[in-house]
Specification:
Blueprint (H helix, E strand, L loop, with lengths): L9 E8 L3 E8 L5 E4 L4 E7 L7 E7 L5 E4 L6 E4 L5 E5 L4 E7 L5 E2 L2 E2 L4 H7 L1 E4 L9 E4 L5 H9 L5 H16 L13
Antiparallel strand pairs: 1-2, 2-3, 4-9, 5-6, 5-10, 5-11, 7-8, 8-9, 12-13
């Protein structure tokens, strides 16, 4: 499977067996996936990465009211109550895409995959950091904004996943080829 399906077109079935078993079923007409829900029109959608699918660089959606939801890691479950009264969800980080799908109020998919151009990847791939001394709140820094020294330290210490370090090495080469240097910010602000 080369393309990831976002299940925008399909058909619904309401299944009711006795009083205790009730499910709403959505079947995607594009890929044939079946999703279940307890409420009509709402489906939790999970797409896992395997050898047939591309690696996720950025797991992000934009809700109808313009709110951006990003999941940075596995089980980084983020929600937002949209202006339309519906709750949107994103989860899975770099490993899988999980969303709440509303057929009548779809979100905009903003995820980036490893087959994107490197110019796009360097603006999308993030690294979580607690600061140089580890005493700061967690912040996420875009690869293109990371200092050269920080990237070198991550590569040298073999932190993070090997595929992320691969993109960091590529970033250092990109900077050399384009005469770009990013230095650590001055702690005094000078």
């Amino acid at each position: 499977m080369d393309k990831t399906c976002f299940h925008k077109v399909g058909w619904f079935v309401h299944i009711k067996i006795f009083w205790w078993f009730k499910r709403y079923v959505f079947v995607c007409s594009d890929c044939g996936d079946v999703n279940y829900s307890h409420r009509p029109g709402t489906f939790s959608l999970t797409m896992r990465i395997d050898e047939r699918r591309k690696r996720i660089i950025l797991n992000r959606i934009k809700t109808p009211d313009g709110t951006i939801l990003t999941s940075h890691s596995v089980h980084d479950y983020r929600t937002h109550d949209d202006d339309n009264g519906k709750e949107y969800m994103v989860d899975g980080g770099h490993e899988y895409l999980r969303r709440t799908v509303y057929v009548d109020a779809p979100f905009e998919e903003l995820s980036i995959y490893e087959d994107a151009s490197f110019d796009v990847i360097r603006e999308a791939l993030t690294w979580g950091t607690y600061g140089k001394m580890g005493d700061q709140p967690l912040t996420f820094v875009i690869l293109k904004d990371m200092s050269d020294a920080h990237i070198r330290a991550i590569i040298r210490q073999k932190q993070g996943a090997s595929w992320i370090r691969k993109f960091m090495k590529k970033e250092l080469i990109y900077r050399i080829e384009n005469d770009i240097a990013v230095h650590d910010p001055d702690p005094d602000g000078e």
